[in-house]
Amino acid sequence: MEQRKKSWAEPFKIKMVELIHMTTREEREAALKEAGYNTFLLKSKDVYIDLLTDSGTSAMSDRQWAGMMMGDEAYAGSENFYHLEAAVQNYYGYKYLVPTHQGRAAEHMISQLWIKKGDVIPGNMYFTTTRLHQELAGGTFIDVIIDEAHDPDDLHPFKGNIDLNKLQAVIDKYGADKIAYVALATAVNMAGGQPVSMQNLKDLREMTNKYGIKIVHDMTRVAENAYFIKKREEGYADKSIVDIVREICSYTDAATMSAKKDALVNIGGFLALNDWDTFERARNMVVVYEGLHTYGGLAGRDMEAIAIGITESVEENHIRARVEQVAYLGNKLVELGVPVVKPIGGHGVFLDAKKILPHLTQDQFPAQSLAAALYLDSGVRSMERGVVSAGRNKEGKNNYPKLELVRLTIPRRVYTQAHMDVVAESVLEVYENREKITGLKMVYEPEYLRFFQARFEVL
Ligand SMILES: *Cc1c(COP(=O)(O)O)cnc(C)c1O
Description:
Layout: H1 25-34, E1 49-50, H2 62-69, H3 79-92, E2 96-100, H4 103-114, E3 120-123, H5 128-136, E4 140-143, H6 164-174, E5 182-185, H7 198-211, E6 215-218, H8 222-232, H9 241-250, E7 254-258, E8 269-273, H10 276-289, H11 300-313, H12 316-335, E9 348-352, H13 353-356, H14 366-378, E10 380-381, E11 383-385, H15 387-390, E12 405-409, H16 417-432, E13 440-444, E14 455-458
Parallel strand pairs: 1-10, 3-4, 5-6, 6-7
Antiparallel strand pairs: 2-8, 7-8, 9-12, 11-12, 13-14
Helix pairs in contact: 1-14, 2-11, 3-11, 4-5, 4-10, 8-9, 12-16, 14-16
């Protein structure tokens, strides 16, 4: 309806506010040092504008909060479970639902259920927790995303696409029976929130059907992907986000979801399945790791908030304002001449640390250093998505990803355009003083997902 108008003002008004803390440079210096130059180890009270992640940081609506009051906290058969099940069936089209406390619990289950030791899992770029669960199940992830995804300047409209030639080569090399499934993410996080096209999905489905290979959909940001399809892909301009989301899901066999993203809640996730046998096994497995199959580690009220959040996540005005706010910040940085991943993705703006800090080698952690410098400048918290996040390979060597990025992730419905302006100013300030950034050395490295807890010192 409002689509004819160019501006995308937030489709909500503010009913309650949370005051934020402003710090001095001295306070930030102390806080950063104490946090080992890792933004994950900062205390929230020391952060001004928090763009660490869009995970669980969204603002819930009054309808969601009202739903929380309708929590049915029965141990078994909570009414809210059936609401969530209906939302998953209606909006995503998957038949069976196993709720979990977060997305990674769903990843754990599908990895254990569908991966045999020695299997390979081709996918459109790794995600940290997803790949780790694949490896813990005895599998090996193989990246089959299109080459354009690894080039921050390439303007391909669907940089999340799977390269079907690469996938064919994996099938030819290992044989279809060694492929546990294709791990397909929509709005590919590690590529910069880049979408997959519907055509690519159709082609992928056709090819995998030929070999009897299943597709597991990481649907964490499927609504954002749907928005890009509507905007960029021929034949979809007049389709609703609801229909596009359903069509995307229809080409896949199972899905893992972190409801902390698209679905506008602070905690929750699920595994969705179409296959009864796998559902039965997952439903049994969830009892061991999460809780009974009608709550899976969530309170009844949490499931209600997710059910309502799903319906809000696919509203046209919501998703438009969400993605366009990210684009607003991204385009502003482009105009200021700051190197960022292009096109601007769905959930954040990704600074190209390799290009911003060419005087640092990847072993000096350019993205980690840049994130630290940004915090120091203004209290804006961002996240490293480079060599620290990429971790080590099975031989214990550092993985060196082509993309060395700092992610400015925008929480949904939380910050205003004025906040985005302040962020852009601070990024520019850091960019203009970039040659003063000297790099870091890692002084503590945990075994798993090191980016969360690693500590650094200034070189
Ligand atoms: C956040 C995320 C996950 C993991 O979900 P959690 O709820 O954090 O466990 C998986 N895949 C993608 C793409 C994500 O962004």
